[in-house]
Amino acid sequence: MNITKSLKTTVVIGSLALATIFLSGCGGLSEAQIAELDALRIEVKSLEAEANSLKDQRAKLEKDIQDINRKMAECEKQKEETRVNLEKLPQ
Question: Rounded to an integer, what distance in angstroms lies between the CA atom of residue 76 and that of residue 84?
Answer without folding.
Answer: 12
